Amino acid sequence: MTKPIFVLNGPNLNLLGRREPHIYGSTTLAEVEASCHERARALGREVTFRQSNYEGQIVDWIHEAIDGATGMIINPGALTHTSVAILDALKNLSCPIIELHISNPHQREAFRHVSYVTPVATATMCGLGVGGYPLAIEAMDMLVRKARPKA
Ligand code: CA2
Q1: 25-29 LR contacts (CB < 8 Å, sep 24+)
Q2: Which CATH class is domain 5-147?
Q3: In the annotation, is 101 catalytic?
Q4: What is the residue extent of each domain of the chain?
Q5: Which atom of ligand 1 is nearest to the CA of 17?
């Protein structure tokens, strides 16, 4: 059986749809998760979708992905701009990595212009709102097929 695509979400993303709708929209994280499963199903893939407010938990899930994921989509939230631990964990993955953001951090405060994740990401996607999540599933499917063409 093929391994799932991991979709990991960092701190505060559990508040999606309930706070700051002018930046992040009014869709909840549960609805975002449903959109990922739906797009993955159409592509014949599975998704493991998780969110945590704790850096160490995200590091543990990245470790789980070393042998357990076919691709890693990660929105590390604010940890994008601070976390050497997440960078170091991601370095251990051999599968494609997509760094995903709902907003476009480059249009926001200067401290959001730095990402510790970008150097190890296969691709980055940002500024597409929550619609970026199912698009990232499609992009990941393309990257995985490119990495491992069928015999
Ligand atoms: O645009 C993104 O996806 C971010 O990763 C979101 C992070 C932010 O620190 C990054 O710079 C860009 C913040 C996540 C907070 O999510 C919330 C969602 C709804 C309400 C409040 C916070």
Answers
A1: 25/102, 25/129, 25/130, 27/130
A2: alpha beta
A3: yes
A4: 5-147
A5: 19
